[in-house]
Design goal:
alpha/beta; Phosphatidylinositol Transfer Protein Sec14p; 5-stranded mixed beta sheet; 5 strands; globular; CRAL-TRIO domain-containing protein; SEC14/CRAL-TRIO_domain
Length: 185
């Protein structure tokens, strides 16, 4: 609706989306937020791999602002959108969605620190509001026993559509991912 479009335009202006790809995140974010684009799925959609479990949320939030984290995630989404557009031209078909893989190995109580959870909820809300329908699948791998607790803290922010795209893979995650992503990628 019009209100959503207006809010999206405000976010794009606030994030300086025309220059977001040139923006450099603070060193702590560049150095310690592990992840990136790692290829394409079998349909040509970009795949992004993010390592969540090894993050030190308290250390990172004391070293960089919440706005820096939001801007970095916005930048990541914009980069994936550009990559999808390039794939569309390369493959001669419209590529509009991406695959996300979240690696939760090492997830612990430190990740449930309220200020960090609040930032993560804000990042998820930003993704839901500004990049709707761009998620094809969200794979969760190496999820420890603590994962359901962490998920319950953030699932209320996810749309029903996004929750349906969440796929939690078990011990055979490598084989399961090969159904979606060629091993050569």
């Amino acid at each position: 609706s019009e209100a959503m479009l207006r809010k999206h335009a405000q976010v794009r202006k606030y994030m300086d989306s025309d220059h977001i790809q040139e923006w450099e995140a603070p060193e702590v974010i560049q150095k310690y937020m592990a992840g990136g684009t790692c290829g394409f799925d079998r349909d040509g959609c970009p795949v992004r791999y993010e390592i969540i479990g090894t993050l030190d949320p308290k250390g990172m939030l004391f070293s960089a602002s919440k706005q820096d984290f939001l801007k970095k995630k916005f930048q990541d989404c914009e980069i994936m959108k550009v990559l999808a557009d390039k794939q569309s031209k390369k493959q001669g078909k419209k590529i509009e969605t991406i695959i996300m893989i979240y690696d939760f190995e090492g997830l612990g109580l430190k990740h449930l620190w309220k200020p960090a959870v609040d930032v993560y909820i804000e990042i998820l809300a930003m993704f839901e509001e500004n990049f709707p329908e761009s998620l094809k699948h969200l794979f969760v791998i190496k999820a420890p026993k603590l994962f359901p607790i962490a998920y319950n803290m953030v699932k209320h922010i996810l749309s029903e559509d996004t929750r349906k795209k969440l796929i939690i893979l078990g011990a055979n995650w490598k084989e399961d991912l090969q159904k979606y992503i060629d091993p050569s990628e």
